[in-house]
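Bug #2210: token dump truncated for TetR family transcriptional regulator?
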Amino acid sequence: MAAKRRSEMMEETRAKLIKSARKAFAEKGYAAASMDELTAEAGLTRGALYHNFGDKRGLLQAVVNQIDAEMAARAYAVGTQAQNDWAGLLAEGVAYIEMALEPEVQRIVLLDGPAFLGDPSQWPSQNNCLQTTLRKVEQLIAEGIVKPMDAEAAARLLNGAALNAALWVAASDHPQDVLAKAVEAFRFLAGGLLATPDR
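Reproduced locally. Full output below:
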């Protein structure tokens, strides 16, 4: 019973730090966010941050993982509303790209994330997205909708295209203009995988 309570307290502490950091990183950016301010906001100490995340960078990774998981869930929800599996796969990619217009996603995941955590394709959260895309591509190949090819290669290229399009939108001085171009190009590139064009 005591072990369970301790585990719950640790989860509460982690959740408080992530919530506080998410707010601070969104408002000020990772570099300008003070560890003292964000721990005080959470009603905790720097020691709690170090114990749970190792350092500020570890906390950023946790925040990015949380937001990225939310993005994936939102994109999936959009995909489930599509008329068929192929349209759903495209809709998920487009939804992910469109989220690059959201200030929190833009600043934390697409600008500060790569700057301080390195290549996004290596993040654990991106690997989860890749596995979801891979399963969908395998299904579409089995149904004859997508050309017979290496499913992992196709999934990696689709995910990479959506991620890089989102990074481009986030870094642009004219994100709305870039979004339209990025979505159009993503659709054309993905369409090349179809066994029968114009599906």
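Output looks complete on our side. The chain has two domains: 1-54, 63-198. Marking as cannot-reproduce; reopen if the truncation happens again.
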